[in-house]
Amino acid sequence: MFNPLLAQEKAISPADLEFAEEDFRRGVQSYYRGSYNDALLLFENAYSYNPQDNRILDWLGKAYYRSGIEGTSLQQWQVASDAGYGGLLLQNRIDIVSNRRVSQDSNEQTSSFVEVGNFPGYNNGNVYFSQPSAVLPLSDGTFWVVAYGSNEIVKLDVNGHVLYRVQGTLAGFDRPMDIIKLDDGRLLVSEYAGDRISLLSSKGDFISSFGEKGCDDGCLLGPQYMALDSSENIFVSDFGNGRISVFSSGKTDNTELGEFLFSFGNFTAPSGIAIINDIVYVADTVKGSIDMYDISGNYLGVLVQEGSLNHPESMKKWETYLLCVDGRQVITIDTVTGAIYKTANAGLSDTKLTCAAVDVNNNIIATSFSDSEIFLISPITELVGGMFVQIERVNSDNFPKVTLEVRVENRKRQPIVGLRANNFLITENKQIGQEYEFDGAFSSQKLCDIAIVLDNSNLDTTAQHSMELAVQEIAQSMGGKGTLTIVSAGEIPVLEYTGSPTEMQNFTYSSLKGVAGNQVPIDLGIRLAATTIMNGNKKRSIVCITEGHDYPNRFSSYGLADISAYLNNNGIYFCAVTLQNNALDAGLNYITSQTPGKSYYVYRAEGLTNIANDIIDIPCGLYQFSYVSSQSTDFGRKYLPVEIEVYLLNSSGRDETGYYAPLE
C-alpha cells in the first residue's frame, strides 16, 4: 500500500510541481467519473512529485474510501490531519469512518432518545393542526398527522412545513383518530365520532368508508387505533364495544375490502393495537396491560402484566419490538420477554402523548394531543458530531453550469431522506453560487439498475433450472425499466450481458459463456458487477444467485469488510437469492447484513416479482443541485473549491471539495 510518510523526504523542483498539478487534475476528473483505480494511481503519482501538498493526500484518502479500502483511506487522512490540514471537518470524517468500522451490537430499540425539535399546531395566530392523535411516517421523509381537533389529516415535510391538508368527504371527517397505509399506498383513517373507517387514495382523496354506529357485528362505537396482519386484514380497537373488530382487506376469496369478518376480546378499554409476525398485541388503557392473540382472535397470553403501564395509547411495530406511548413517555417493549424500556420523555409533565412512530430517518415522531404539538425525538448518539455529508460527484462539463451530487447520512450510515432546498447552503470559495437550483432527491426515483451475479459452481440440472427461473423473475420484476447486467462468477468472472431487462425474461443457463468452477472467486464477480452499475441509476443493487455452499477461497482477493465497504461507499445495495431454502453461506450472509437489501428463496410463495420494488423502496439520501459558477478557471487548470452545509432542526453537517472546469 502507498505510504505517504516515505514520499515526504523528496526534494521538490518546479517541474515536479507542474507534474503534480497535472496528475492531480486528471485524478480529480477520474474520481468524478467513478474510475477509482485510475484516480488512485494519478493521486499517488501526484503526491510522489509533491509530498508537501496535503490536499493530494485528502483526495487519495477519498479514492481509497470509494474503493472500499477504508483502512488505507484513514491512514492518508490521518497523515494530512497530523500535518495541520483539514481542521475539524477532516477530523470528524476520520472519527465517523473509524467508528463505522467498529462492530456495533447496540440495539436502537433499547437505546435512549432525546427530544430535538417540535412542530407546534399553533404559531403566531396561525392554526396548522389541532389535537394531533396519530402520525404515519412515509418513505420519502414526509408524514401524515391526524388532527382530531381540527377534523383533518395534514401532510408535513421533515422541517414541519405543511404540504397540504385533507378533510375527508364533503361533510368532513368526524373526529379522525388513527391512520395506517395499505401496501398499495391507499390510506385508512378511523373516525372516533363517525364510528367508521374511511378509505383514501395515497394523496388523501376520499374513496369510500365502512362501519356504522352500533354494537352489532360490523358496527363500531368509537373506533381508535388500527393494524394490519400479513393478509392486510384490518384490526380495529373498537373502544366503545370493548373489543377488536376485524375487517377484510379484500385479498381473500369472496370478500371485499371493509367486509366484516369477526370480532374478539372482552376489554375494559382497548386502545393501542399492533401486529408482528401475525401475533396481535392489544393494550388496555384502564388496566395498563398488553395481551396477545393470534390473527383468528384466540387468546395467547399476557405480554405486559396489568398495572405495569399508566395510560397506554397507540402501539406501532418497530421491527420485533412495540413502540408505545404511556402518558408523556415513549417506551419500547420486547415482544419476546415483555421487558419495558424507557425510550424518551416528551413535552412537559402534564403532556399526553397519543402516538409515536419511527420515520425513515430513524427518528421518532410523537403526537401530543394535549399540547397540539408534534415532537421529534432522536438517538442521543446522533446529537454528537451531526450528519455525514459527502459531495460525491461534480459535473462541470457544461461550465459555468455546475451540477453536484450530495449524499447525506447519519453517523451510522443510515440515509437522511426528505430534505428540501432550504436544508442546504452551497458556496464556492465561501461565495453563494448564481442561479442555484435544487434538482431533487433520488429517493423519489422509481426505477433501478440490477447486476445479477451468478454463483456458477458446477450446478446440477435442477440448480441450473432454478437459476434460470430466478433470472427470469428478476428481469420481469424490473418492468422493462432500468438496466440489467449479468455476471457469471465461474473460474473467471465474465460479463455476460448488459442491457434491457426485457431481453433476459427468457434467459437460459446454456447461454452463459463463462466456465463453471469448483472454487468460485465470488469476490471478483461482485467487484465486476459493481463496476458495471457504478455510473448508472442511483438506485442500484447487486443480486447474487447462489446455492449457498461455503466453498474456500471465495473471498481471497477482497475481504468481506472491504467488499461491504465498497458497496456501501458507492450506494450499491446487495441482495442474495438462494436456490435452496435457508442455504446462504456465511460470507454472502455477512455482506447482506452489512448493506441495504435482503435475502430471498427462489421458490418462496410470492416469488421474486417484487424484488425490483424492494430495491426501489430502500431509502436513498442522495440529492442533486445545479448552479452557475462565477469563478475564473485559468483555462481549466485552476482547482475550484466548493462547499456545502446541511441543516435539519438541531443537526448539521458539511463537506468541502473542488473540481476543474474543462480545459480550453
Largest sheet: 6 strands, mixed
- The quaternary state of the protein chains shown equals single chain
Q: Work out the helicity level.
A: 10-25%
Task: Give the overall silhouette.
Answer: globular
- The tally of beta strands, per DSSP, is 42
Strand content: 35-45%
Looking across the biggest beta sheet, what order are the strands in? 36-35-34-37-38-39
The CATH topology of the largest domain corresponds to Neuraminidase
CATH architecture of the largest domain: 6 Propeller
How many domains make up the coordinates?
Answer: 4
Total of helices: 11
Average pLDDT taken over every residue: 93
CATH C-level category of the largest domain: Mainly Beta
**The CATH fourth-level homologous superfamily of the largest domain:** TolB, C-terminal domain
Q: From the helix content, strand content and strand pairing, which structural class follows? A: alpha+beta
